[in-house]
Design a protein that fits this description.
- Helix content is about 25%, strand content about 20%.
- It is globular and about 70 Å long.
- It starts with a helix and ends with a helix.
- The chain has four helices and ten strands, in the order H-E-E-H-E-E-E-H-E-E-E-E-E-H.
- It is α+β, with helices and mostly antiparallel strands.
- The model is unreliable at about 1-20 (pLDDT under 50).
- Strands 1, 2, 5, 6, 7, 8, 9 and 10 form an eight-stranded mixed sheet that branches. Strands 3-4 form a two-stranded antiparallel sheet.
């Protein structure tokens, strides 16, 4: 009946609109990495841990295993522009930069760049500034009073974060010539 169709249609519409939407990670073709804006309000340390718990399977049900994520490392103006395009209006988000080990020496704390000095930065004018000297701010957050702009921040206020996924290393496949040599060697042994 029409009433039943309207009821079912209304329930489906409500269910679709009420369920939290989570988009799939977004590919940046320049480096082959995927990025995911995670709307889980966490401290910096919690975001660092949580990003490492997340996984993404690059090839779906293919032969490659899923890879672990990490708190985003932004290493170029082009990467920052990509993130601005996709997450620039999403509010504050944690990034993996910190100077907790040595004050004023900013390093990446996750990903392939873990432990490396920052070679690219996008600090808001006047940042980093340790809250104008009132207390230490040892972690970095992006989208601070401007799309993509970074700020040094105390790590305890909750914010969302971006998880980054690096592609898995390529699977080594022997070349046909190598297989021929292997077969000849095995035949010689036999």
């Amino acid at each position: 009946s029409d009433e039943m169709r309207n009821l079912v249609g209304g329930v489906l519409f409500f269910a679709l609109c009420a369920s939290p939407a989570h988009a799939a990670p977004i590919l940046w073709s320049d480096n082959g990495h995927y990025y995911d804006f995670i709307t889980e309000s966490r401290t910096w340390a919690q975001a660092l841990t949580r990003a490492g718990e997340l996984t993404f399977d690059f090839d779906g049900a293919g032969g490659q295993p899923a890879v672990s994520g990490y708190l985003v490392t932004i290493t170029s103006a082009n990467e920052q522009a990509f993130l601005n395009q996709h997450f620039g209006n999403s509010g504050l988000y944690w990034i993996a930069a910190g100077d907790g080990a040595v004050e004023g020496t900013w390093r990446w704390n996750a990903g392939p760049e873990n432990g490396r000095l920052l070679t690219y930065t996008n600090w808001k004018c006047g940042e980093p500034n340790n809250a104008l000297g009132f207390f230490e701010e040892d972690q970095a957050v992006a989208n601070y009073f401007g799309v993509g702009l970074w700020n040094d921040w105390a790590g305890f206020p909750p914010a969302n974060f971006v998880a980054e996924y690096s592609p898995p290393p390529p699977v080594a496949t022997p070349e046909p010539a190598t297989l021929g040599l292997l077969a000849a060697g095995l035949a010689g042994i036999a």
